[in-house]
Amino acid sequence: MDAMLADPLAVLVLAHADDKLLLGHVQSDWTGLGPLLEEDIAASAMSQDDLSHALILYEFLGKRFDLDPDVIAFERAPEDYACCDLVTFPDEFDWATSLVKRWLVAVFTGLGLERLGTLDDADLSARCDRIMPEQRLQVAHLGNWIRRLGSAGGESTARMQAAVDRVAEVTGTLFEVPGHRLEEDETYCCGRDDLFTEWNGIVQATLAEAGLTGTFTLPERSTVGGRRGTHAGHFTEQLTEMTEVRRVSPGASW
Amino acid sequence: MSKIRERQFNHDGELPPGTPDTQHWVVYTRKKEGNPFKWAGSLNAPDLELAIQFAGEHYGLDEACIAVLVHHADDRTDGPCGLEPLEPGTADGDDGSDWTVLVLPRRGGNLQEAGTIKAPDAETAIARGTRAHANGKIVQVCVVPTDRTVVITGDHDTLIWRLHDMTYKFARGYSKDVRAKWTRIRDEETYEDYRKEDIHSHF
Known about the structure:
The complex is a heterodimer. By secondary structure, chain A is mainly α.
């Protein structure tokens, strides 16, 4: 585990895998509560997709560092999770907030996995390629809802704008440099500015189509947040719940 | 436990009254190139755009297929369904617009695409569809105006076989496979008791 957490590429993969795991876990709360039956099914399926994507990435790390993917997923110390605070940000059961949050993360993850897929690692590249079709579907699906509800006018637009404003405050956490055990290295995540610019371009174009506005800022490189293991309280709450069964019976098999 | 799990939120007075603003859409899937579209299921959606989106995601991702066809349930006209296979009849002609013909191979089976014919109206389309496709093996002909159907293809990764394990969907009844699955986590005796009880109470 220590070797994995000290490896820059592994930590980058871990950041995406942890985002997926925690987002899939948090979003599954909506199962049975979606605004439309079909959307309920779609949102639940996307949560399952996220968990499946996390597993694919944990398996990559497990192979490389001889670790059980379940151990990586459930048995790390809270500070060793590299997810950002946006994924566990409470949506307070507000559908607009849930949509905006998931959409912003989905666009980021899509761009991040595209970049990881171009690295000189055939296994990682194949895994990213397999995830990407489902990731693109998530971006398209959520983007359609942003446009639809944002441009509907009246209460719908007002709720969507309020959701964007609320989520914007923590959106920068997506772009924090991950890995609290890594040596400071300016070349690590040096493409962060480009990634933010591309992400912001996609997000702003969709927001404009939806008649919404949002201002997002790139955090300083030195920012220490969830990606470096200093998580918000809501992360700890979700992690405690998510790992409950695992802690009751460590190593249990089905 | 998180606030969400405990359902601590109160939205009383915020929710609008339920409105029947969704419509019914029918979905067919094509498994392989050259195969006909076969009935897959239906869904509810407020409009065509969302119907297409849901059809692609629910049916295009949850089973291996190369194309999905969707139409509004009201756009389909069903011909009579008899106990005996249909006779072809004598309807003739090729005037009018295109209709997609769907046939039911047997009562209790699923509709599948048989082809297209031209006709000025639904009644004629059913008669001409019956003439074209009743071969002593089908029991019903249904038609949909072809321009009221939408086909989603696998281009641009819109249709893919989902990554996550969905083998639970294949669990039906008490087959050998299902037994093997359950007896991995229950002993044989417990499983056998459960099976008998379940069959007794449901069948």
